[in-house]
Structure formats: C-alpha cells, structure tokens
Amino acid sequence: MTDATTGRKGWADAVKPYVQPAPLASFFLGVSSGAPFAMIAATLTTRLAQDGIDKKAVTTFTLAFLVYNLKWLWAWMVDGVRLPVLGRLGQRVSWLLVAGVFVMGAIAWLALVDPKASLVQTAYAAVLVGVAGATFDIVIDAYRIELLKPEQLGVGSGMSQYGWRIGSVAAGSLALVLAARIGWHGAYLACALFALPAMLTGLIMGEPERHRDPVARRGIGEVAQSIAGPLVEFFKRRGAVLVLLFILLHKIGDTLANLTFRLLFDDLGFSNDEIAIYDVGMGFWAYLLGIFIGGILYARMGLKRSVLLSLILMCVSNFSFAALAALGKSNWGMAGAIGFENIASGIGGVTVVAYFSALCDLRFTAAQYALISAAASIVGRFLTGTTAGALIERFGYVQFYLLTTALAVPGILLFWLMMRAGLIDASVGTAATEDTQKAAEIAP
C-alpha cells in the first residue's frame, strides 16, 4: 500500500480521494479554523483603520497572532486531559465541542468592544479570540491528522486548506458586508457561528480510529510525560534541529508580507469594494486554484520536489507586491499580485502542510503539530507586530516587500540542503505510515 510520502499517482487517482469521507471532513474542519483567524486578521485591521487608529497601533495588533505561536504550551492538555461528561464522546470530539464554544464566546466579546472607546479592551478581546482560535486549531489539526489515512495526508491537507480559505474569506466578507449595514458589533456576532461546522463534523464522524492516548494519566509523572514526551520524541530524530530551523525560517517573508497587504491597499487608495473584489473575491478563487494545483503537484512530483517548488513560488509572490507598490494604484496590477500570491500560497498550503502533518507521531499529534505550526510563523508575526509599521514608514512599501522577498531565500536553501542530506526522509513520524514504523523513503 502506498503511504503518504511514497509513490506517484495518475491524474485520475489524484482527484478521486477528494470525495472520500475523511478529506471531506477535513474541509469542514478547515472552515471553522479559518474564521477566528479572519476576525483578528484583515477584518480587524480594516475595522481599526476605518476607525482612524494610528498605523503603528494597527500593526501592533498583529501581536495577537503570537498567541497562535504559543499554543504548544497548552497543546499537551488536548492530548492528555480527559474532559468530564463530554469525554464519553471521545478525547478529540469532546475537546472539539468545548473549544468551539470557547471560540464563539471570544468572538462575541470582540463584537461588543469599541476600539475608539478603548484600545486596551479591544486588545484583550483580540488576544482572547487568538487563544480560543489557537485552542480550536490544536484540536482540529490533531483530529484531521488522525482521521486521515497516510495516503490521504496530501489531499486531506488540500481539503483543509480549501475549508480554511473559504471559512476565512466567508467570515471576512460577511463581516465587511454586515458592518456596512448593521455595524461591526452585529457583524462579529454573526461570524461567531462559523465555529459550528467543525463541531458538527466531530459529532457526525466520531472519534478517529488512529487516535492513540500517549500515556495513562494517573499522577505527576504521567503529566510530565505528556508535556515532555512530544518534544523528546521529536528531537530524538536525525536532523531534528535543522528541521526545526527550517520550520522557523521558511515563512518569515511570507508572513511579514501578508499581514501588511491591507495597509498597502489602503494607502494606495483602493476602496472597500475594490478590496472585496480583488483581495477577497479574486484572491479567494486564485487560492482555491492553487490548492488544486498543489494537490496535483504533490501527487505527481512527490513531497520533496513539490515543497521546494512551492517555497520558490511563495518567495517570488512577495516580489509582485513590491512591483504593485512601485506601480501605484492599478486594478490590473492588484489583480496580478493578488492572483499570483494566492496561487502560490494555495500550492504551499497543500505541500508544506502535508509535510508538517507527516512529521507527527500519532501518540502526540496535538502537541507536536501545535509546536510545528506555531514555530512556522512566530518569527514573521513577531517582526510584523514590532517593526513592520516602522519599516514601512521609514523605507516605503517597495523596499519593504523587497526585504520580505529576500527573507524567504534562506528557507529555500535550507530545505534544498536537507533534501541533499536525506533529512526529509528521516524526519517523518508515524502519521505518515500505516504502522508505527517511519517511512523508509520519500518520492524524489
């Protein structure tokens, strides 16, 4: 049987898995995962900008995303703490329901605060949405990885990205539309309902068969093992430090660029309608196209080459925004930059997420994927929150986006060197295989 990282499939075989139950479930999980992120990403940026908040204060709010990068600190609880009463539904399903309710409550609080009246209260609410969304992601990612069979990791990652994009765009678009009609308070309250698809998916699909409890929870020692076990297992692998370094470096430029796009559009003079048409609308379809292309490339090229190609494309996509900034307000320029960036991101969303999913040991799925996904964007988010606004004001948008392009190069070079050294082959965990043995080989 072909596992998640071996063998190439024909074109028909690459498309057929999209209609299987587990990948379809991944889609609905992704829908709910994307909504909380959208509420504190471009949606909150637009809300603050329209309320006349200073640009430096707006970019500082991106520090709320750092909560996502700290989720590994409590991810062990999702693996190791059994919830009372609801625990009868299963470890993953019970946590999915609790985290979903947490997300709905946090978004409701953000709906009720007024940035013009209190930026501090708005910041607290944004951070709480980040905590809730990060917890939801911990459960969703673990549930998705354990629900998918090894050979479904590629297509399942693609479906999850489809769902994430649809959920984030739908929530963001709905917020913009409703804000213009009933205000931001009502808009955010309506978007809180996006937590429901994942909760319903858990109830329908039930507990994943591949879920494995890491240890019996009977005392302090077992709790300590739940916390330390995921890290110890990961760092015992050959080349683990370089793998972690790649995770930290590969997305710096992309994250730094993406979290500032709305500031560029606003300063170039694009209206809300133009942003909705090109960034939200066209970008949405371009991203979906990129995900489809990414799934085909993953199946045809194998993990290593498809990941390397996606890293190069994402690097070049940052340069397109330097070109847009130099060109000035241009609908065609915006369409080209947004289209290319989203196609590249969609491809990377499949290939890179599939690789990160394959890195997990099924005994510690929640904790390990939380560590991996948190590390993937922590540097870029920290730089955005602390320096992006100041860099833009000092050097301008053209130089800023050229910098983000240069920052993407080290990740590309490191992955290529890891390929040459065989570290990609050695780094996968049991999530990528049918049994508890690691994959012996990855498609070239």
Written description of the protein model:
The two termini are 18 Å apart. The protein contains 22 helices and no strands. It has one domain (11-432): Growth Hormone, Chain: A. By secondary structure, the chain is mainly alpha-helical. Helix 7 packs antiparallel against helix 8.
Please identify, by name, the CATH architecture.
Answer: Up-down Bundle
Average per-residue pLDDT, rounded, comes to 82
Helix content: over 70%
Task: Give the CATH class.
Answer: Mainly Alpha
Tell me the total number of β-strands: 0
Give the ordered list of helices and strands. Answer: HHHHHHHHHHHHHHHHHHHHHH
Beta-strand residue fraction: under 5%
CATH superfamily: MFS general substrate transporter like domains
Which class of secondary structure composition applies to the elements? mainly alpha
> Biggest sheet: strands, sense, closure?
none
The helix count comes to: 22
Low-pLDDT segments, ≥5 res:
1-7, 435-444
Distance between the termini: 18 Å
Radius of gyration: 21 Å
CATH topology: Growth Hormone, Chain: A
Number of domains: 1
Cα shape:
globular
Could you give a quick summary of the protein structure above?
This protein has 444 residues and is mainly alpha-helical.
